[in-house]
Amino acid sequence: MDFLTPTVQKAMLTATWETVEMVLISGVVTVVVGLLLGILLHVTGKGGLAPVRWLNAILSGIIVNITRSIPFAILMVALIPLAVIIVGTSLGPVAASVSLTIGTVPFFARLVETALRDVSSGKVDAALVMGSTKMQVIRKVLVPEAMPGIVSAITTTVVTLIGYSAMAGLVGGGGLGRMAYTYGYTRYNPGIMILTIIIIVIMVQIVQVIGDLIARKVDHR
Amino acid sequence: MITVSDLRKVYRQGSNDVVALGGVSLEVPTGKIHGIVGHSGAGKSTLVRCLTLLDQPTSGTVAVNGKELTNVSADELRDARRRIGMVFQHANLFDSRTTEQNVGYPLELTGTPKKQIAAKVAELLELVGLTKFAKAYPSQLSGGQRQRVGIARALATDPDVLLCDEPTSALDPKTTDEILDLVKKLRDRLNITVLIITHEMHVVKQACDSVSLLEGGFIVEHGDIASVITNAQGRLAHTLLPLPGDAPRSAGAGTILDLLYTGDQATEPVISAVSRTFNIDVNVLAGSVEQLGDQQYAHLRIQLPLDADVETITNYLLSNGIAVTVKGTK
Fold first, then answer.
1. Does A218 touch chain B (CB under 8 A)?
2. Complex-level ipTM
3. pLDDT tens digits along B151-170
4. Cα distance between residue B281 and residue A163, in whole Å
5. Any CB–CB contact under 8 A between B52 and chain A?
6. Chain B CB contacts of A127 below 8 Å
7. Rounded to a whole number, what is the distance in Å from the CA of A103 to chain B's nearest CA?
8. CATH number 3.30.450.40 given to B2-236
9. Architecture of domain B244-329
10. What distance in Å separates the CA atoms of residue B121 and residue B113, rounded to the nearest whole number?
11. What is the sign, positive or negative, of the torsion defined by CA atoms of A153, A156, A158, A161?
12. CB contact under 8 A, A218 and B96
């Protein structure tokens, strides 16, 4: 473990924190925005609660599908100017969170849409027949009934974000991706390379275990 | 009371119009249980969806206690829907909610105070015998218990009409009878109007005061149980009181008659009366005798000897209030 000089140790800690920061910021924004977008996708879709064909076509066809079909590595670079506009800089974890969020929102929204689609139409019918408004159906029936699926979707999304954040590190985001590249690859230090990998694996494991725990807690099916 | 008049539903399928309901009219008086029977594809599901306005009927009206559900605004429709409690085939409970939260759902919608909800829910759970399971989730309940929760939930808004869509089709025979007994008990207790849509004749026999036969989007036969069961020309008589499986059409030579009769005649020795009056031997080929409600019904297939005077015997039976169909001579 002689590669772990005090300087490297400090850099490693900073890098880990930067990764956590990126994942946290983009994770929270993705869940909020993606949940709303996922609900809109489902509700305006064919056979949905309030079908709006043109809106669904725009949301699904243009925004979600196009964003999802652009490889993240390209999307990230392409969105650097946007980060400059929003946060004033293209460097650092906060700037990286902009492209991370835009890259994962459509992905998460699709997962939410799928989870909502799994709620049987009979439950929605029952809610309507009992005199629910459409808003009440969404808030009191659709989302709570889809909660186990939504929690799994959040877990999957956060795990994906951890992976993407490493990529974002390469173009100025910092974090463990940057660490692995500069120390591990450029200076050819396999110890640091392996250590960053181990840290990332542990992060993913923690997220997965917590996610599964919550999913089991909210699943009464 | 629920009144349905000339309800039509036409779906557009490509360039064709598919008539799912061809003009259904019916009226169920307060406190009565009415069954609507039909095979799959007869239009039962469409009828249910139109009655609750989940689908907009093409034309026709649905009214509960004189208040129309059709042609009203979305707000009024939501209020009107609360006059109808609905029970589903698979209960359609919310899995994320406990029994009491499920039953309280309709009350939550209108912002009823928590205390009031709790009191009403406790009362309803008592009524359906599920007080012990108030905190249980639907996945922890049996099919019959889930259906009881569904019934309690349907009653939460004190509706005038209970609409049951295949309420027992997913249940075993014993649970079916328990649920039907519960529905009858609720009718007696709350004087509620009940409409049961089903494909099971057993449900009609067990619970209904009157019945309609739905076929190809039309009601082709309807009436009290007693009147449809003794109508030899009708189809319901033969499905409600069928002859056992492979009833023999004949045993040797003779004239075969089908007899349908009810009440007093069923307890009287009709066959031996015929035998004695006309001095002939009567052969019973098949038969079923059942007690439905407080009335007894019989459906018999008999064979008369070749030399018997079929016309006189038929008239004798008819004059005794027995529906007779001559099935032919062999």
1. yes
2. 0.86
3. 999 999 999 999 999 999 98
4. 92
5. yes
6. 94, 105
7. 31
8. no
9. 2-Layer Sandwich (3.30)
10. 12
11. negative
12. yes
